[in-house]
Amino acid sequence: AGADLSPARLLDAYTRGIFPWYSEGEPVLWWSPAPRCVIYPQQFHASRSLRKTWRSGQFHVSANRAFPAVMHACATVPRGYANGTWITRDMFDAYCALHTLGWAHSLEVWQEETLVGGIYGLAIGNIFFGESMFSRATDASKIALWWLCQSLHALGFALLDCQVENPHLLSLGATCIAREHFQALLEQHAHPATPLPVPEWRNTLDQLTA
User: pLDDT tens digits for 172-183?
Assistant: First the structure.
């Protein structure tokens, strides 16, 4: 417990498998769950119904078009598998600062020009540390996660960190690994701590969704 949410401290924490998670009025609390919930990007489970929804053409996706809006929606849109929010004002400001610096990223799902789903997190080395996702339309958050995983796989990312398991994530292909295994993957793929090249991600996403 304690410390601050400066960019340097957050980056150092994530490369060690530690992340902040606390509620308004509490001190900053730091966590490193064991076992760790992760998705290997190539193992995301896209059901036939999800593929059919995508083929309907009602959604389109983008990368880093509306990062603050995605964070705000993650903090305010109710989710059936979780209660409340840990996205305090300090957390919002800290991750928006990381976004400005090129470390934090979002993937957005749109119906025409309405933001209906999305996910955000940090890309450090070849690991994407997922933070939260939201949905205002059926399957919108699943589509966000699906296209995030496809993009990460195409870009050579080793892992999507999901932090703590829940039935929703497990149904989409998430699995749990031992702390020692997760730490070994961090040592291999999150060092040196390099950011995700945003133009490369956008070009990859455009090619995948064309």
Answer: 999 999 999 999
